């Protein structure tokens, strides 16, 4: 995996320590995402669950949109794509992308 990622980092113009940093960042993020996703699938039901935690009153939040969004289960593919896009853009020094969207 690391060798393939080094080739991708080189293709993106990264060299040396920056290439190694990018490889490890992507590797750790991917593995972490997979582990978290599997844990959510296998873990016993949590109390309060996400709707219970974020539902009801505004919880003192000035902007209720995040609370509404967090009250629903995550769409893990969208979360993964947003995280990878943000991380890779940051590692490559890409300015904020217009395609960046919420999770």
The radius of gyration over CA amounts to: 17 Å
Average residue-wise pLDDT: 84
- What can be said about the biggest beta sheet? none
Tally of alpha and pi helices: 5
Broad structural category:
mainly alpha
Distance between the termini: 26 Å
Helix content: 55-70%
Q: Which regions contain 5 or more consecutive residues with pLDDT less than 50?
A: none
Shape: elongated
DSSP E strands, number: 0
How much of the sequence lies in strands comes to under 5%
* SSE pattern, N- to C-terminal: HHHHH
For the structure shown, list the relevant keywords:
103 residues; 5 helices; single chain
Give a description of the structure.
The chain has five helices and no strands. It is mainly alpha-helical and 103 residues long. The longest helix is centred in the N-terminal third of the chain and has 27 residues, at 16-42. The model has no long low-confidence stretch (mean pLDDT 84).
How is this structure best summarized?
The chain has helices spanning 2-11, 16-42, 50-54, 64-70, 76-92.
Layout of secondary structure:
Blueprint: H1 2-11, H2 16-42, H3 50-54, H4 64-70, H5 76-92
């Amino acid at each position: 995996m690391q060798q393939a990622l080094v080739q991708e980092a080189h293709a993106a113009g990264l060299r040396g320590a920056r290439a190694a940093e990018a490889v490890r960042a992507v590797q750790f993020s991917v593995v972490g995402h997979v582990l978290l996703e599997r844990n959510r699938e296998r873990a016993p039901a949590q109390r309060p669950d996400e709707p219970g935690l974020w539902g009801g009153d505004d919880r003192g939040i000035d902007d209720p949109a995040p609370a509404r969004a967090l009250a629903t289960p995550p769409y893990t593919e969208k979360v993964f794509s947003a995280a990878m896009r943000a991380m890779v853009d940051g590692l490559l020094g890409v300015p904020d992308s217009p395609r960046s969207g919420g999770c």
